[in-house]
Give the backbone structure.
Amino acid sequence: MCSGRVDLPHVFRAFSNGVDGVFIGGCHLGECNYITHGNFHALNMTLLAKRLMERIGLNPGRLRIEFMSAGEGIVFADVTNDFVKEIKELGPLGEIEGIDGDELRTRLDGITKMVPYIKIMKNEKLGTPLQNLEEKDTLFTAEEIDRLFSEMISYYIDPEKCQACMTCARRCPVGAIISAKNQIHIIEQDKCIRCGSCLEACPTKFGAVTRLSPGEAVPPPPPEDQRAVVRKGKKADDS
Ligand code: SF4
Ligand code: SF4
């Protein structure tokens, strides 16, 4: 497939499935047949993936992107041989990094879950072709990736204010809101990609969705037997 379609989840899934290295081959930059220039997207995605690999303790050398034309068979052979040699030197995934199998899977699962949030936050950079390839090592920095996680906000539905109108659940792009008729709605934090659509969607008259600051603990949801909505202007035992 076109290198422009290779995405972060493909890379992390390959590592989760046990490969020791991932190689992406794309057409020469600036020679894409389409106005989308997907190979520039592939380059930016790879640079971001390498930073994310560093964050979870994996050697970023296990991921490589190279650009070549279909007629450059010798170039293809040379770069793949070189990559295979490098991966053989690194050895099995996790070994040189000192991460055991279970821990590795946990880290890869964790970062994969965060991909939608990461893509929202880095969408502009991911989609902007690099004009100067000398800047590729600084397009995404380790500090920037640390900030992405340390400044991560959360969204929370206040059970006292939710009126179960279901608007937020219909707008949530990833089905992260537990929604049932006449039941207080609840955000599943491990599914939420922090897009903020629920905050925008909740009618002002209810104002039930709150954006929590980075590091602020999300209050636990009410127990299941206490999720019936008390309509505004009614007491619980009126119904
Ligand atoms: S912020 Fe709200 S709408 Fe967006 S993913 Fe999270 S729960 Fe869904
Ligand atoms: S939009 Fe607001 S009031 Fe309606 S279900 Fe969602 S959180 Fe509750």
In short: Confidence is low (pLDDT under 50) at residues 235-239. The first helix runs from residue 8 to 16. The radius of gyration is 23 Å.
